[in-house]
Amino acid sequence: MLKIVVCVKAVPDPKEAGKLKIDPVTKTLLRCDVPMVLNPLDKHALEGALQIKTETEAHICVLSMGPPEAGKIVKECMALGADKGILLSDPCFGGADAYATAYTLAMGVQKLGEVDAVLCGMASSDGATEWVGPEMAIMLDMPVVTMVKEITMCNGEAWEVKATRENGYRRMRVKLPALLTVTRDLNMPRALSFSGIIKARKKVITQWNLDDLGISAETVGIKGSPTIVTEMCAVKNTRKVAFLEGSREEKAELLLQKLVEGGVL
Amino acid sequence: MNDNNPVWVIADQEDCNLLPVTPQLVGQARILADVLETSVEVVLLGDGVGIHTEKLFASGTDRIYMGNDPDLGTYHSEVYTDVIVKLAKEHNPQIVLMGSTSAGRELAPLVAARLKTGLTAHCIDLSINQECILEQKIPAYGGEITIVCPERRPQMATVAQGVFPDPFPGEGRSGEIVSVRGPFLFSGRIQTLEVVTEEPGGIPLDTASCILAGGAGVGDLDGWNQIAELATVLNAGLGCTRPAVDEGWAELDTMIGQSGKMVSPKTYLGIGLSGEQQHMVGIAGAKIMIAINSDKKSPVFDQVDYGIIDDCRGFVPVVLEKIRQYKEKHVSCR
To answer: Which ipTM did the prediction report?
Structure first.
């Protein structure tokens, strides 16, 4: 039975994330109620695991680090078909950079015991560093392939995948246990189904805190982060907009003029 | 607190071609090293890469650690990581810069995790502050945030091609080449079976003088096809923001912004996008910036020269028709 862990993150809804802004006066983040959703690329990672499960016997555990509210994202993954859900949550985990996040998640994976594969979305829509997956792989001493757009073979002791590169891809063979980060090209994530939601109602999410992981507070959150944010600045705009106005026809005509003036046409 | 340790750039090469981001980073490393009163060193791994040393010295490096070997010919994450980590532990660079290329984005976190140090992604600026620490700027939350790695060393950052300019070649600059010798051990956990090159379609964004970019507001694939048609008739490059990639309308390698492509067209037209900082920071030096958005309060209108408040689904077809009529008139005059 393949044991697959899918790492997921609760992120501010990308469609509304533009509302999160730096206050130009206080230079701190203006708190705004943007709903948290499952990171888009993590949906593809979970879907990848679910599709493997249709071909081979597999157990899928979803793992996430976040505040207690992130539990609903883990629940959503269970409704989509994950067998187990773990939320790593502790006030100490807050403010973690990619390194501390990778460490915390890696310790969560270790606590799960023998694992054959860890799948992650290539990047989160908010932090978007792309670092957590590969750094976890180092901490777990697993080989890693990033930007996986296709899993061409997934039975046996090694998988074959296609990894995106500039102008094409690399075909890679990677021995299990391995960590893969995936792109949206991997698949079309399934939608939540009513029956999935009903079944998930009975499933329980496990929550682990700092003590459950048996690690020191110095290694997680802000304390465990090698990098820190020292300054936030709202950007000063140098351009002043002139609106092209009138009826739709008139606006299109004005736009055409600008394009001609600009030498585009 | 200045330890006089060198500033490093890990060179990016593909099929023996030095990727343009490398000399750009060497140029910036030179600026940083001059402030720190230290040297610049480059790690260059590959096969047949000796041809690049002259350009690297001209760009500002003082020393090159060169691993020039058939075993290093194809990028291999584990082997490259091992070589770089070994060199770093021996020579203790205080700063390590890498290009945000597909290999760089995989290699940088592997090296950073092995060295247990901090790594900042897709910086748009790098400078040295009063405490001799590297200030790494990235766009976020409609503005810019500064990140530092105050204690751990090296301070690592990735930077996309086009953020820093091509350096002015220093005449007669030369330096030291230190050979990095094997054996280069392959653990066998990862194997590259094949490297496949696919020619990208469309007008390359790097050189396009007019660029159209679409965002979430385009709505759906039909809407996307409409703006793709507009790009075609304008002979413009077609780029996008992250939501368009997530929706599946556009490829990741056409995404313009901090973690995508940096572009410098003469004319930029943003359609159905909100002017998010991560995207806008990817567009430099455009003479004319235009945006079409149905929301009159959209932040994009704070960042452009001309704005059109309209729904792109209804507006773009009208523009297409106007352009068609214009072209007919002007072709027939010849």
So the answer is: 0.92
